[in-house]
Amino acid sequence: MAITSTSGRRPWTFYALAAFFGAYVLFLYGPMLCIYVLSFSGPQGGLSFPMRGFSLHWFRQLIDQGDTGDLVGAISRSLPLALVVMVITVVVCFAAGMAFRTRFPGSGVLFALVVASLVAPGYVLGIGIGLMFQLLGWEPTWYTSALGAQLSWTLPFGLLIMFAIFGRFSRSYEEAARDLGARPLQSLRLVVVPILLPGIIAVALFGFTLSYDEFARTLQSVGSNNTLPIEIWSMTQNVTSPSIYALGTVTTAVSFVVIGVALGAIALIQRRRAAGIAMRRA
């Protein structure tokens, strides 16, 4: 319900807060919009305004490995890594959420150790993982050491979200399922997972996006083959054309597509639930 005064008009504070929020959004997305616009510059375009022409020239330049680095290789590493991190984050956080519903010896200490990874400096943690692999005689790679470094970032976030999800889940649903003869695995598969599915999708989205753009923890643990964020960072040192803006536009579009798919899946699940409740009431 909208906030209004006794005369039916909104108070001046409403417009002040709306203006402040609009300024914040402009400050947040204004530089990004400039990058998106400049990425469509013509062949003579530069890194700043005024914009010279309009074309897809700099997007085509991304395919040229000599000008923009190993982008294809970086993407071929970042996407599988993000998917693996997403799956592991969902499975581990869901299992932890089920386990932490009941107190067990050392649960408080274990939770503190997991959450402590959030406040640990990312560079320091990445360096530590890289050094550990070198001391053990293992070669740091994007699918071993970088995977572990990114999980130290995604698991605490996923665990906190999963705790919030389980905090709103009533165990009476499981009890009802078992009263009807369901075995524990059946109750988990047919009752718990479907009810918590929107939250599980949210954890998966966090795991994918946090891994896809992770830089600090990955920089010192990825080895000789860069992931996409590190490749973009290296491009800023030697690429002086709008092709780097084109890359930013592409990666942002991928992120929005992933977010849109996740939100669409959640909306579809909620719509089906509402339709099912309406049919049962009818």
UniProtKB/TrEMBL annotation:
Task: Indicate where this protein resides in the cell.
Answer: Cell membrane
Q: Please list every transmembrane segment annotated in the UniProt record, as residue ranges.
A: 12-38, 79-100, 109-133, 153-169, 190-212, 244-269
Gene Ontology BP terms: transmembrane transport
What is the name listed in the Swiss-Prot or TrEMBL entry for this protein? ABC transporter
Question: What is the first-listed, main subcellular location in coarse terms?
Answer: membrane
- Where is each ABC transmembrane type-1 domain found? 75-262
GO cellular component terms?
A: plasma membrane
Q: Which CDD domains match?
A: TM_PBP2 (cd06261)
Q: Which family does it belong to?
A: Belongs to the binding-protein-dependent transport system permease family. CysTW subfamily.
What taxonomic classification does the UniProt entry list for its organism? Bacteria, Pseudomonadati, Pseudomonadota, Alphaproteobacteria, Acetobacterales
What is the membrane topology here?
Multi-pass membrane protein
Matching entries from SUPFAM superfamilies are given as: MetI-like (SSF161098)
Q: Which PROSITE patterns match?
A: ABC_TM1
**Native species:** Acidisphaera rubrifaciens HS-AP3
